[in-house]
């Protein structure tokens, strides 16, 4: 069945899509940008650049660093970051529900596989 992939243009040059949302979810799960990047098969540099892009796009950070200690530093998704993920997932669910009938029609029109 065809699937829907959603990207939201929040403003010129500011896009949020599945990759950035997966990264935020992985940071929340793993507690660090580097561990999240590893879990997603992404370099630390790429993960850090995406986080930096998101943090610069919003009035306040969506990911905050945590100072190191004996166990080293880390990162956490801020309440705004959590709201971003929740809003994206809600739009994604609503869009998928709205498109389901059309996607089913496209699926029926595909050549046998």
From TrEMBL:
Domain HTH lysR-type: 21-82
GO molecular-function term, one example from the UniProt record: DNA-binding transcription factor activity
Alphabetized InterPro entries for the sequence: LysR_HTH_N, Molybdate_resp_trans_reg, WH-like_DNA-bd_sf, WH_DNA-bd_sf
PANTHER family in the record: DNA-BINDING TRANSCRIPTIONAL DUAL REGULATOR MODE, TRANSCRIPTIONAL REGULATOR MODE
Official protein name in the record: LysR family transcriptional regulator
Organism the protein comes from: Methylobacterium aquaticum
Source taxonomy: Bacteria, Pseudomonadati, Pseudomonadota, Alphaproteobacteria, Hyphomicrobiales
């Amino acid at each position: 069945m065809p699937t829907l992939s959603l990207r939201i243009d929040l403003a010129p040059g500011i896009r949020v899509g599945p990759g950035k949302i997966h990264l935020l979810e992985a940071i929340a799960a793993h507690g660090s940008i580097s561990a999240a990047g590893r879990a997603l098969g992404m370099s630390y540099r790429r993960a850090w650049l995406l986080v930096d892009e998101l943090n610069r796009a919003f009035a306040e950070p969506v990911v905050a660093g945590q100072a190191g200690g004996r166990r080293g530093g880390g990162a956490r998704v801020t309440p705004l970051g959590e709201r971003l993920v929740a809003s994206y997932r809600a739009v994604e669910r609503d869009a998928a529900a709205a498109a389901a009938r059309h996607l089913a029609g496209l699926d029926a029109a595909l050549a046998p596989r």
